[in-house]
């Protein structure tokens, strides 16, 4: 006997645009292309060639102390740093888990908004999970961030700074395992990346630009997630940047997905999966379908069969399913699936030829789900 469908949940309105009247963060070299950095210095009456030196310090040497920028003239150093390397965010709390291999940081932005990033070190790689918005307007009821609503979009530089901060921590040996480098970035933190498309794309370009113009990462190590903003998914496919697209699907049928992911009332499961397949067809990059497993909600065996059928309808070999054991928020009715139900879900997907993995959950003891730390009261 299958579990009953959940009762309808009151949904917050979907928000695609940030509230008007908010101050913007100060311009930072990570917001600008190399020529724009030079032009900004010249507009301020400063030598344009210093822009490359500042970029080298920021992206190449991962320096955050102006005292170490000894190639800049002492008399102009403060002015140069203020022009292109203003402080964007302040760490409020950093919590560690998994024997120091997972570090979650709560950041305070210049206007007081709070966001989170997570650094996860695995054998052979280190992944930064970054936020792209302060809050989120997608109103998914099981998500801590979604229940707080959208405060504002983050700037390109604010997004990049999360990765650079993680890169500094690794380079300085502050993370268990000794010195290292960030190899992967996932846009799976707070916010809907596709609803802040321009800044997110700018961040992807800064992360992949060769050093010292950017961090010099491989685009194949970057994953951009979305709950299914179909026009933006199609736009990303035409950008010519081979990032991985991750579609947060969470249900294979419109009736349930309308509740779990309210954007589905605008773009159906069929439209969303079609757009994901188009991304694969244009880029050759296999799509990741994210599916948070929720006890008695979306983890029934018949939904595993339906999910496989929905994906296989577009063909084989274009998609990988990533099952996510839900990290519940305190007091929430949404809880993780029973391990036996999770195993059966995997078995049924694989029986129909759909490659499936269960995500290695990190940071449960440090409020690992996005938005939990930002929503928590300050420790006494």
UniProtKB/TrEMBL annotation:
<feature type="binding site">
    <location>
        <position position="143"/>
    </location>
    <ligand>
        <name>[4Fe-4S] cluster</name>
    </ligand>
</feature>
<keyword id="KW-0698">rRNA processing</keyword>
<dbReference type="Pfam" id="PF04055">
    <property type="entry name" value="Radical_SAM"/>
</dbReference>
<dbReference type="InterPro" id="IPR058240">
    <property type="entry name" value="rSAM_sf"/>
</dbReference>
<dbReference type="GO" id="GO:0070040">
    <property type="term" value="F:rRNA (adenine(2503)-C2-)-methyltransferase activity"/>
</dbReference>
<keyword id="KW-0411">Iron-sulfur</keyword>
<dbReference type="InterPro" id="IPR007197">
    <property type="entry name" value="rSAM"/>
</dbReference>
<feature type="active site" description="S-methylcysteine intermediate">
    <location>
        <position position="370"/>
    </location>
</feature>
<feature type="binding site">
    <location>
        <position position="140"/>
    </location>
    <ligand>
        <name>[4Fe-4S] cluster</name>
    </ligand>
</feature>
<keyword id="KW-0963">Cytoplasm</keyword>
<keyword id="KW-0479">Metal-binding</keyword>
<keyword id="KW-0489">Methyltransferase</keyword>
<feature type="binding site">
    <location>
        <begin position="248"/>
        <end position="250"/>
    </location>
    <ligand>
        <name>S-adenosyl-L-methionine</name>
    </ligand>
</feature>
<keyword id="KW-0819">tRNA processing</keyword>
<dbReference type="InterPro" id="IPR006638">
    <property type="entry name" value="Elp3/MiaA/NifB-like_rSAM"/>
</dbReference>
<keyword id="KW-0408">Iron</keyword>
<keyword id="KW-0949">S-adenosyl-L-methionine</keyword>
<dbReference type="GO" id="GO:0005737">
    <property type="term" value="C:cytoplasm"/>
</dbReference>
<feature type="active site" description="Proton acceptor">
    <location>
        <position position="116"/>
    </location>
</feature>
<feature type="binding site">
    <location>
        <position position="225"/>
    </location>
    <ligand>
        <name>S-adenosyl-L-methionine</name>
    </ligand>
</feature>
<feature type="region of interest" description="Disordered">
    <location>
        <begin position="1"/>
        <end position="31"/>
    </location>
</feature>
<keyword id="KW-1015">Disulfide bond</keyword>
<dbReference type="GO" id="GO:0000049">
    <property type="term" value="F:tRNA binding"/>
</dbReference>
<dbReference type="InterPro" id="IPR040072">
    <property type="entry name" value="Methyltransferase_A"/>
</dbReference>
<feature type="binding site">
    <location>
        <position position="136"/>
    </location>
    <ligand>
        <name>[4Fe-4S] cluster</name>
    </ligand>
</feature>
<feature type="binding site">
    <location>
        <position position="327"/>
    </location>
    <ligand>
        <name>S-adenosyl-L-methionine</name>
    </ligand>
</feature>
<dbReference type="GO" id="GO:0046872">
    <property type="term" value="F:metal ion binding"/>
</dbReference>
<dbReference type="GO" id="GO:0070475">
    <property type="term" value="P:rRNA base methylation"/>
</dbReference>
<dbReference type="InterPro" id="IPR027492">
    <property type="entry name" value="RNA_MTrfase_RlmN"/>
</dbReference>
<dbReference type="GO" id="GO:0051539">
    <property type="term" value="F:4 iron, 4 sulfur cluster binding"/>
</dbReference>
<protein>
    <recommendedName>
        <fullName>Probable dual-specificity RNA methyltransferase RlmN</fullName>
        <ecNumber>2.1.1.192</ecNumber>
    </recommendedName>
</protein>
<keyword id="KW-0808">Transferase</keyword>
<keyword id="KW-0004">4Fe-4S</keyword>
<dbReference type="GO" id="GO:0030488">
    <property type="term" value="P:tRNA methylation"/>
</dbReference>
<comment type="similarity">
    <text>Belongs to the radical SAM superfamily. RlmN family.</text>
</comment>
<dbReference type="InterPro" id="IPR004383">
    <property type="entry name" value="rRNA_lsu_MTrfase_RlmN/Cfr"/>
</dbReference>
<dbReference type="GO" id="GO:0002935">
    <property type="term" value="F:tRNA (adenine(37)-C2)-methyltransferase activity"/>
</dbReference>
<dbReference type="InterPro" id="IPR013785">
    <property type="entry name" value="Aldolase_TIM"/>
</dbReference>
<comment type="function">
    <text>Specifically methylates position 2 of adenine 2503 in 23S rRNA and position 2 of adenine 37 in tRNAs.</text>
</comment>
<dbReference type="GO" id="GO:0019843">
    <property type="term" value="F:rRNA binding"/>
</dbReference>
<feature type="binding site">
    <location>
        <begin position="191"/>
        <end position="192"/>
    </location>
    <ligand>
        <name>S-adenosyl-L-methionine</name>
    </ligand>
</feature>
<feature type="domain" description="Radical SAM core">
    <location>
        <begin position="122"/>
        <end position="364"/>
    </location>
</feature>
